[in-house]
Amino acid sequence: MFKAIGIARHSVNARIYLIYSFLQSLWFIEAVWYFYWARFLSYSQIGIFFSLLVILGLVAEIPTGYIADRYGRKQSVVGGTILLFLGAVLMTSATSAVLLVLGVSVMSIGRAFISGALEAIVYDDLKSTGKHSHWDSLQSTAIQISLVAYILAVPIGGFLYNIHFRLPNMLEAITMFLSILMALKLSDSSTQHQLLERKVKIRELL
Fold first, then answer.
1. 72, 112, 192, 198: least surrounded by Cβ within 10 Å?
2. In this structure, are residues 180 and 85 in contact, taking their beta carbons and an 8 Å threshold?
């Protein structure tokens, strides 16, 4: 853990990765999501939708992976995080089952955009500086930080739900917005390399 913290001090991407992991694990709705959903859907509808949601997440991995390779991993992470924020806003403001389902579906697609892309950016960054041997340590620290965030968020979400049933979702939307700010600060070495190659090609043509 201390090695990972040391790396984070000297690597912006590693630092962002740890902060991003913390924010994404603040699941304020974890203890109360079922009660929130039950306001709009029946028990059987919730079960059916969750089955479809798993399929949606798996199917979305294919086109989102292509988009990340085609347009850049940072763009994929930023775009995915924006979708998470929009989905969280839809869930927070939901007044019907349609809006709730739409919000959760948008978030599922957003996670597919982020899946693998963020880790690849951070790993390649460490590799470029010869510190990729510390990747496992960094990941372990990210998991520990995520667990701390989860442990803190769950009881807070339950407490806030008793005050107003939308408050846990509101907080989740805020954490997603903060995650966007973190994602925008990422630096993708592969994208920079591609830009350099394009500049060289242009110079050769000229």
1. 198
2. yes
C-alpha separations of 106 from 7, 23, 33, 95, 180 in Å: 34, 18, 17, 17, 15
Q: How far apart are CA 135 and CA 28, in angstroms?
A: 29
3-state secondary structure of 131: coil
CA distance 160 to 69: 41
- For 169, the enclosing helix (H) or strand (E) is helix 167-184
95 φ, ψ to 5°?
Answer: -120, 0
Average pLDDT value over all residues in the chain: 87
User: What's the pTM?
Assistant: 0.86
Find, among 83, 103, 79, the residue nearest to 91 by Cα.
103
In degrees, rounded to 5, the angle at the alpha carbon of residue 98 between the alpha carbons of residues 97 and 103 is 100
- Can you give the length of the chain in residues? 206
Q: Which of 173, 137, 165, 190 is nearest to 27 (CA)?
A: 173
* Residue 62 or 7, more confident: 62
Tens digits of residue pLDDT in 12-39: 899 999 999 999 999 999 999 999 999 9
Comparing C-alpha atoms, which of 143, 125, 137 is closest to residue 186? 125
Render 11-33 in DSSP notation, one character per residue: -HHHHHHHHHHHHHT--TTTTTH
Tracing tokens 């190659």 back to the chain, one arrives at: 197
* Cβ contact 160:168 at 8 Å: yes
Separation CA 109–CA 104 (nearest Å): 9
